[in-house]
Specification:
Layout (H helix, E strand, L loop, with lengths): L1 H8 L3 H23 L25 H12 L2 E6 L2 E6 L2 H4 L19 H5 L13 H15 L2 H25 L6 E4 H18 L5 H12 L14 H20 L2 H6 L1 H33 L11 H7 L23 H32 L1 H18 L13 H14 L4 E5 L4 E3 L2 E3 L4 E5 H5 L22 H10 L10 H18 E5 L9 E3 L1 E3 L4 E6 L14
Parallel strand pairs: 2-7
Antiparallel strand pairs: 1-2, 3-11, 4-7, 5-6, 8-11, 9-10
Helix pairs in contact: 6-14, 7-8, 7-9, 7-19, 8-14, 10-12, 12-14, 14-16, 14-19, 15-16
The structure holds protoporphyrin IX containing FE.
């Protein structure tokens, strides 16, 4: 009553009544649609407008869907705002969604979201592109840049240099006892930022070096001198992170709430400003490279990176010898806006995923000394055989146990626990007919931890990957990077980066958790990550009969 009196005294009584009526009408409409929906599935009851996003534990999304899977089974539904999502945790239910045919009914990942349009990312790039034709066009340019054998070979050489550079910074920042205490999450993300920006644009951001400078200065130490330009490195690095949060925010928060709730409308503004800054940086980069190409004499070869490949496509300077499977989509050069979309796309998809997986490796190796010991055994033999030679693509395949560890962490704790498909035609899934436009979430984490496919799925056991001919062997690699036409184009690069990082770092260094009781607690914003993981890095103490010496100093 007091509220009504107050509203009346300030002349808002009528508006309040209209607002209330609208909410009631919408609520009735929402629940009418909900209780008469086709193929009702078990799942938590959604609220109008916001769906299940304020359910207890929703923000710990992986734990939430784990609980829901236990409660409701391998197929249930949840609501993101008003959008119904069918969650599939059984491989057989989603097998045909990973179909390689171009006529597949599952070429679209998500539908059109007005929020993504507002952010000017709808219909751009590939991962969140709802427009299948535009996706086909863009995907070609990204795949041919990331999946060629020459790119894989080059990426091993370059990644090794980058790991060594990062280890040098750690060495330089070490205390008198030789140890360096730091948050490994930050370094891993800086590492993949430098790596992906280099592979996609040919230009380094120097995010690692900027972090080294900031960290040493904060510890009253003098960083070593360098000629690299690191002015905007940290801002650029943070801008990509904020951009990812912005995408998530604009997808899950409905426009009405986003625009009219004061705190949230400020959040929207922050994301618009960040997007403008990031896009202008990318536009400068594209223009600069375009000029460089124009000024490069015709008889001089152009360097191969994704940006150069996209800028020259269907021009006289086309550096790509691979022809597209469907010319209909590629008979013209890309516009700068399309190129920009493909660039931010690759940053967003390629930085956090690999970086987070590496931090999970650090966590698991610190908690499983027997696995670490076995890894070291493999690395010692491997590097002794390698001698003075550098790592190359072929020799990485000898790291069988290293790969088993990576696969097991991908299985038990993947950074990309879900992917999605939005059907473009009616289809039968799990024995029921579903209309066009049904939104599915493929619960990669759920499938990889489902006891139907795995013995003791909760057990961290890299050895399971050394046994041959198991049904699950084929299953995991397919689901962890998705499948079909929309499979992850960065999967090869990711394995290369991870193998190089694990091999080089764990051969030379001990990496311990500062707090040995750190819980395995992660956050989920599109992907899964540790907010922070503090470690003590020091030269490896060889407890081997023959080499009782410290390795690196
Ligand atoms: C730990 C490493 C990574 C994991 C676990 C991962 C996982 C995934 C998954 C599950 C998908 C969805 C696939 C599907 O729906 O079928 C995906 C898509 C994608 N990934 Fe990755 N990824 C990783 C690394 C990378 C890297 C390093 C890059 C770039 C260099 C990258 C670029 C992309 C892109 C552009 C897409 C969208 C593909 C499309 O829609 O056509 N990813 N990734």
């Amino acid at each position: 009553m007091a509220l009504l009196k107050l509203l009346s005294s300030i002349g808002l009584y009528d508006s309040f009544l209209i607002f209330l009526t609208l909410i009631i009408v919408y609520t009735c409409y929402f629940y009418y649609k909900y209780f008469t929906r086709e193929n009702p599935l078990p799942g938590p009851l959604p609220l109008p407008l916001i769906g299940n996003i304020i359910d207890r534990g929703f923000d710990e999304f992986v734990e939430y869907t784990d609980r829901m899977q236990k409660k409701y089974g391998d197929m249930f539904e949840i609501y993101f705002g008003p959008q119904r999502m069918i969650m599939l945790s059984k491989y057989e239910y989603m097998q045909n969604m990973f179909d390689y045919s171009l006529d597949s009914k599952y070429m679209r990942r998500i539908p059109y979201f007005a929020g993504l349009d507002e952010l000017n990312v709808a219909g751009k790039g590939i991962a969140l592109n709802h427009n299948v034709n535009v996706w086909k066009f863009n995907r070609h340019f990204i795949s041919r840049a990331l999946l060629t054998p020459s790119f894989s070979k080059y990426s091993v050489i370059w990644t090794q240099n980058l790991v060594e550079e990062m280890m040098d910074f750690w060495k330089d920042g070490a205390e008198d006892d030789g140890s360096f205490v730091t948050n490994i999450v930050e370094w891993a993300h800086r590492f993949t930022t430098d790596s992906i920006t280099h592979f996609t644009t040919g230009i380094r951001v120097h995010a690692i070096e900027a972090h080294y400078n900031e960290l040493l200065s904060s510890r009253n130490k003098k960083p070593k001198k360098s000629t690299n330009d690191i002015t905007d490195a940290t801002k650029f690095f943070r801008s990509i992170k904020t951009f990812v949060v912005g995408i998530y925010f604009f997808i899950i928060v409905p426009p009405f709430i986003r625009n009219y709730f004061p705190f949230l409308s400020n959040e929207s503004k922050k994301h618009f400003q960040n997007r403008n800054w990031l896009f202008s940086k990318l536009d400068d980069l594209i223009k600069h490279r375009r000029k460089e190409i124009e000024h490069t004499p015709l008889n001089q070869p152009l360097r191969f990176d994704m940006l150069t490949s996209m800028l020259t496509a269907y021009t006289d300077r086309d550096i790509c010898e691979v022809k597209y499977y469907d010319e209909e989509y590629t008979n013209r050069p890309l516009t700068d806006e399309e190129i920009r979309g493909n660039l931010w796309e690759t940053f967003v998809a390629g930085i956090d995923t690999t970086a987070n997986l590496f931090t999970f490796v650090v966590y698991f190796l610190a908690n499983y000394p027997n696995v670490l010991q076995k890894l070291r055994k493999e690395l010692d033999v491997f590097f002794e055989k390698l001698g003075d030679r550098r790592l190359d693509f072929d020799c990485l395949s000898e790291l069988v146990y290293t790969e088993a560890i990576l696969k097991e962490i991908f299985r038990i704790y993947t950074p990309a626990p879900y992917t999605a498909r939005n059907s473009t035609a009616e289809d039968i899934v799990a024995g029921q007919v579903w209309p066009e436009g049904t939104q599915y979430i493929i619960n990669i984490h759920g499938i990889n931890n489902n006891e139907k496919y795995w013995d003791e799925p909760e057990k961290f056991n890299p050895d399971r990957w050394l046994k041959k001919n198991k049904k699950s062997d084929k299953l995991m690699p397919r689901v962890v990077f998705g499948g079909g036409r929309r499979v992850c184009p960065g999967r090869k690069l990711s394995y290369i980066e991870l193998k190089c990082m694990v091999a080089l770092i764990y051969h030379k260094l001990d990496v311990e958790l500062v707090d040995k009781n750190t819980p395995l607690k992660t956050k989920f914003i599109l992907i899964r990550s540790f907010p922070e993981l503090n470690v003590r890095i020091k030269p490896r103490q060889i407890v081997n009969e023959f080499f009782k010496k410290s390795y690196i100093h």
